[in-house]
Amino acid sequence: MFIRSVGSDNRLNAFREEVRQFCREKIPAEIRRKQEKSQHLDKAEYDAWLKLLGEKGWLTGKWPKEYGGLGWEPEQFLVFEEELGKAGAPPLINFGINLAGPVIFTFGNDEQKKKYLADIAKNNTWWCQGYSEPGAGSDLASLKSRAVRDGDHYVVNGQKTWTSWAHWADMIFVLVRTDATVKKQAGISFLLIDMNTPGITVRPIIGITRHHHLNEVFFDNVRVPVENRIGEENQGWTYAKFLLANERLHSLSFAKFEAYLAKIRKALDVVKDGGRPLSEDPTYRRKLAELDVRMATAKALMADQLAAARTTGSPPMMGAAALKLRGTELQQSILQMGLEVLGRNGPVYQDLALEQNWDGEFVGPDVSAGLIYEHLYRRAATIYSGSNEVQRNIIAKGALGL
Amino acid sequence: MFIRSVGSDNRLNAFREEVRQFCREKIPAEIRRKQEKSQHLDKAEYDAWLKLLGEKGWLTGKWPKEYGGLGWEPEQFLVFEEELGKAGAPPLINFGINLAGPVIFTFGNDEQKKKYLADIAKNNTWWCQGYSEPGAGSDLASLKSRAVRDGDHYVVNGQKTWTSWAHWADMIFVLVRTDATVKKQAGISFLLIDMNTPGITVRPIIGITRHHHLNEVFFDNVRVPVENRIGEENQGWTYAKFLLANERLHSLSFAKFEAYLAKIRKALDVVKDGGRPLSEDPTYRRKLAELDVRMATAKALMADQLAAARTTGSPPMMGAAALKLRGTELQQSILQMGLEVLGRNGPVYQDLALEQNWDGEFVGPDVSAGLIYEHLYRRAATIYSGSNEVQRNIIAKGALGL
Amino acid sequence: MTSFSADERQLLDESLQNFLSEKYGFERWQQRSGPSGDQYGSNEWRQFADLGWLGVAIPEEFGGTGGGLTELAIVMAAAGRHMVLEGLLGTVVLGAGAIELAGTQAQKGDLLPKIAAGELRLAFCHSEQDAGYARDYVTTIARPVDGGYALEGRKAFTLGAQAADLLVVSARVGAADGPVGLFLVPRETDGVSLNIAPALDARLGAEVRLSARVPGSTLLGRADVDRTASIDHLIDRAAIAVCAEACGAMAEATQNTIEYLKVREQFGQPLAKFQVLQHRLVDMSLACEEARAIVHAALEALDVGAASAQRTVWQAKVQTAQSARFVGTQSLQLHGGIGMTDELKAGHLYKRLCVCEAMFGDADWYLKKLSQTLPEHIRARTQDDRMKPPEVA
Amino acid sequence: MTSFSADERQLLDESLQNFLSEKYGFERWQQRSGPSGDQYGSNEWRQFADLGWLGVAIPEEFGGTGGGLTELAIVMAAAGRHMVLEGLLGTVVLGAGAIELAGTQAQKGDLLPKIAAGELRLAFCHSEQDAGYARDYVTTIARPVDGGYALEGRKAFTLGAQAADLLVVSARVGAADGPVGLFLVPRETDGVSLNIAPALDARLGAEVRLSARVPGSTLLGRADVDRTASIDHLIDRAAIAVCAEACGAMAEATQNTIEYLKVREQFGQPLAKFQVLQHRLVDMSLACEEARAIVHAALEALDVGAASAQRTVWQAKVQTAQSARFVGTQSLQLHGGIGMTDELKAGHLYKRLCVCEAMFGDADWYLKKLSQTLPEHIRARTQDDRMKPPEVA
């Protein structure tokens, strides 16, 4: 205990300043304005910003240099993300840079690396994730979508769901069953599919946020070249688990949490009870203090993970599952506090205020709709990327040997 | 929902006043003094008081009139217990009046009723409970103590544990295995054993309170007359379950909770931070308010149960298990607050102050040792009478059909 | 008021459950619940009236059946279970309640029968932007002018205000320190403007701005009587009515979740077979029972006018808020992804439970009130409490 | 102070674990831990000194090995895991710390080597009955008298005071509003009386009453320097040392519980196979990891003198208290009845964790301090925080 140092050094200060300046200069005013109002961006707006980051190489800063990355240590990525968050930049979109990309450069062949990686790094292609199915939630391996070999193609049939941004995506990576006669994990393959292939239908899902960014994706005799398969046939579960671990790690974004807290603090000054702002009420100061402690603890856990990975090269005991658990619990607690503060203002949720060109009048603080949107959307945080119940199963089995 | 009235009527006010007056006049001064200091009573002191209650018939007020009881409704017992608690009377001892007695008058034969009931009602015999075994905790039915028939006797061998007051008891009721060849619940019998029978050894267990009231009880070829068996051979599990439900119901004593809170309130006035009493600190007022809500809710749940039992004759959905769960959780929360308040005073625990003739000097408030004793002892409240995990299993299966 | 017998309550409850299960199905609910949907269904409202629900707590002399708050709560619980969109609270609890507490005999005789008959819908526009949950913060002013009053002020977001015939508006009569009066202002009055917005649960409401002249007859009762205490009492009643609604919604959410977990299979067996989820369902069920029990205690305390009634209401609101949050969040969690869409009841129940948690004061707010009334209690208890009558909790 | 390398720390930790597992077994612990037992084992203390633990944070020039608080924490964590009875905190963290912060060179040269050598045991008698956790509440007075001071006052219960050679006593010099000085008072001084009592965890301590004359040389450093800030800093260090001890105790409690559940069978299988208990064990393990991580962050912040250090200490104490409570109670719960006896480590660890939770301030107390320093933070953040340097958490 307390043996390895976890202290962060200061060598990243210059980089931090560089990112800060870049954001100050390069985030388009219109995007900044929308971000401050929590308004949804359209694809062109995302692209405009992400391509700027792509030009700097920052989009894939964490990738190894041989695949066009900058070989950042995890700490550097954290600084990068933190500064983006503080500057009000649009969020990074994980699917290409953190999910598809690393699978491709780790398990893909040279052709695939050549074909896909550069476009991810430059934000020329949008990816989406074909993992979940209606019948297979946290029990991902029980998926039913199937791919049958037909010459140098696979013919894919089935359905994926909870697919973020499928309606904008150029490519999708999917898990499909290529052998139904073996143990469920053993008959899965990992395919990359062009979203323009005939037979693919995207159907929107309206969330409890009343907003559309999730979709169902239907595959009806979709022909996929065999060369689009990652690695070996029926070995897809190996690549899938690798990707899931990355996904879990990236579910914890402190920058996002800080942004929530900043909005809550703003609301505390504006929302009143009996004419006095809530920021004067010790109850809320205490809640902020409690969140402050949990945030500090989560950051310490993260620092600890990074230190362990740095010195031993292997992930520490509890691993990504622990961060996923505590991170999402904290996220929901922050957003719960947001709802509590705004509740005094009437249970208003002006979801249309998050659409561009809205010209209505706010009821209560202008941060309200954005915070409530996040509150509702992040109720899923303890469900997606493997429910927190499943994470506890993973730790019980993997780390505690139960 | 909200269909049956749960309002309590006022017809018990006269009875309440009678109990109050009785306590005022009859509790010996020495006992009152010790109770206020939370000092342990000796057997003679318990007996002196319990016999007084026995003379009034109150000890077994809830028993049916035909067995020497007064036929009280549950509400009347609650009033009785509440007033005893407020008056600082010694606690009732369950084993005879609420556990052994009802089993005997429900399942025993006429001989047994004649032989045992009156002595319980008059507090002439102390009973203790031979249920738990070292290898069988919440999985009670897996008990190993066995009784082998030998003419008109059973020969009992085995070990019981967590036996409160075994060192004072005249009688013990035990569950023993009389058939090891069948399903574990099917081979159990229920015996009444005189503690003076040769072959019984009582060995003290020192709890984390550093106090002795629990024991191990060893049976070494103990000969028990067959006439001491309740009901049928191998049907003991039926009687055991009946008794357990009674035990669960009696685990919730609001009078006890009120007494804890009174002591905590006293401590809040005495314990200080930076020279100011803690009772001025909103944090503690808030904690009291939270406990106030939980207490009101638990009382409402109890009233609800009683109303349901009164009108339908059958126990309501969640039943005794729900009260056991919430009651013990609340009990521990109250006692946790007690420890928090006293913590500021240094982590002192003058356990010897609970013994009579202690003439030391208190460090901190005089309620301290008693509250800490209860804090430690009641950590077991969520374990005994079937752990709270087991209660949840019971509700899941019984009430929710899972 | 007289209360119904248990049999009469049972009949009322059955009529509610029968009608709402048959005529108020989820598909139709989905169509109606959108911002342009017919949320405050005129047909439904008339049927509610025909079934006697709207007049259940209105005295018989004014066309009702003379029940108490407990009967209203039976209606609200059914409304919660079936996610009734119509503004029962604003009309039946607050609106009718305001008229009964503050109105003249003539006003009661004129208006209460119309409410019972489903001909009049009201919204209670009392709270103001800076009031939060405080009940005595009124800055809207009603200045006497020729033949009436000039109302100036702004009322916070109120559910159902956009569809109400009459807005019950509180205002200080005469000056900023004048007595608080209650005015019945027709929504369509000149100088009354609404900023209509959806609530979290998609039901509509509005902020109301007033810069209007209204006739003297719009004032409930006499001009020189301060209605602050009546408003306090009314909001207690509304708070417990919301608790009753939440109890219905929680019971439904829990039952839905249990049923879903019994059929949803993962890892080769129904989710309901996993012990962790079983215990969660037990805790959800317990949370429902706890809220139901204490709300019931508060209802009876209010109906008999017990001295402890207000305190019990506060306790009930705290417990209900805590139960609602636990049940709501866990219901979503256990449904998994599918619960996060607008296609299941789970999400809608969650959002309604959030609204119920907040309306008329959340757990923190009532805990603060409870804690502020504790000190005397503490002092009292540390003296010889054997001399005192027992507390009624 | 310089810090050890990771390898040196590893060696220190191994020497601790090896010695304590071998020489400090539970049976012997049980004999020694009673009120008449040899809690402050002289043999053990000497061996601790020989192994270099007592001087680990004492500068090399004074006979130590010059480590920092992190090295002390490694010792404390091992002490927590093995339930070391001896008063490391009072001597090594607070006693030596007070001398180092406030003593003259001569005092340091005289006393620190003795501490490192195990020849001197101290207890930090600063808190008073009415102080609670407040660190600046001192009413004990040291009036200058011929050749020394007359100490008058009463110090609250302090663990280990009954066995200390010297009591470090804080007192206001001269008058009730004088500067706070620290005095090294031999326990055996005339006019120093102890009310010895056991703590929750059976370790002994004492309230100390002072009505004594002490020579001027007992004052640490100069008479006109107020030591309030030093005491504040010392208590921060002690608080985090207690956290480190709690981390060790928690890890041990969790590991014991896991092992017990793997062998204890009920309902036909090991308890560790029940999903509810598995998840509980996961949450216990997570609670341990969380406390360990933030305590580690606080240790490093203190060792490098970071501006954020004090705030991080407070955060760490809150988290540790919460983790300790969860781990402690759940460890008892999952052990079942057997954990409720004095025959298993579980109960002793629970009680020690309760003590650690309370010592030098519990979660509520630090949350209050944290919340009182938030308002500026809020204001600062609601302005343009892009202009400000990033916060260090």
From TrEMBL, chains A, B:
The alphabetical list of record keywords is:
FAD, Flavoprotein, Oxidoreductase
Q: Which residue numbers delimit the Acyl-CoA dehydrogenase/oxidase C-terminal domain? A: 234-399
Q: Where is the Acyl-CoA oxidase/dehydrogenase middle domain?
A: 128-222
InterPro entries registered for this protein in UniProt = Acyl-CoA_Oxase/DH_mid-dom, Acyl-CoA_Oxase/DH_mid-dom_sf, AcylCo_DH-like_C, AcylCo_DH/oxidase_C, AcylCoA_DH/ox_N, AcylCoA_DH/ox_N_sf, AcylCoA_DH/oxidase_NM_dom_sf, Mycobact_Acyl-CoA_DH
Q: Which residues form the Acyl-CoA dehydrogenase/oxidase N-terminal domain?
A: 13-122
Which cofactors, if any, are listed as required? FAD
Q: Which family does it belong to?
A: Belongs to the acyl-CoA dehydrogenase family.
Quote the protein name from its UniProt record: Pimeloyl-CoA dehydrogenase large subunit
What is the source species? Shinella yambaruensis
High-level lineage: Bacteria, Pseudomonadati, Pseudomonadota, Alphaproteobacteria, Hyphomicrobiales
From TrEMBL, chains C, D:
The protein's superkingdom reads Bacteria
Cross-referenced Pfam families:
Acyl-CoA_dh_1 (PF00441), Acyl-CoA_dh_M (PF02770), Acyl-CoA_dh_N (PF02771)
Membrane-crossing segments per the record: none
**Domain (Acyl-CoA dehydrogenase/oxidase C-terminal) ranges:** 235-362
Domain (Acyl-CoA dehydrogenase/oxidase N-terminal): residue spans on this chain: 7-119
What the record says about family reads: Belongs to the acyl-CoA dehydrogenase family.
Protein name in UniProt: Acyl-CoA dehydrogenase
